[in-house]
Design brief:
Shape: globular
Helix content: 25-40%
Number of strands: 4
CATH class: Alpha Beta
Distance between the termini: 26 Å
Strand content: 35-45%
Number of domains: 1
Length: about 100
């Protein structure tokens, strides 16, 4: 059974914003490799953290809306946990998409 999810990823872009486009493209490919179907990608720009708990004081926020199974969600979580470019990740299950009557 496929569900809709929202993934908020905070990217570690110490090198600068010029590599963000390539990084987001690679992440989209990672979603596809794990069986997720991406509905939308929202680039939310670089933001400073309110509370600095690690070596970074800011990150580039990206929001992905995708469809996948719970198993897909576990695979993505494990994959991005090992990715040095993904600083933080958060997932939320969304309501099913309503179909509009013609």
């Amino acid at each position: 059974m496929k569900n809709r999810y929202e993934a908020l990823l905070i990217l570690n872009t110490k090198g600068g914003d010029e590599s963000v486009k390539e990084l987001i493209d690679r992440l989209e490919a990672d979603f596809s490799k794990e069986g997720a179907k991406i509905e939308s990608v929202q680039k939310m720009d670089r933001r400073h953290f309110t509370y600095v708990a690690g070596e970074l004081d800011s990150g580039y926020y990206v929001n992905f809306i995708f469809e996948g199974t719970p198993n897909t969600l576990q695979k993505l979580n494990a994959r991005f946990k090992l990715d040095a470019d993904v600083y933080r990740q958060a997932y939320k299950k969304l309501a099913p998409k309503k179909k509009v009557a013609a």
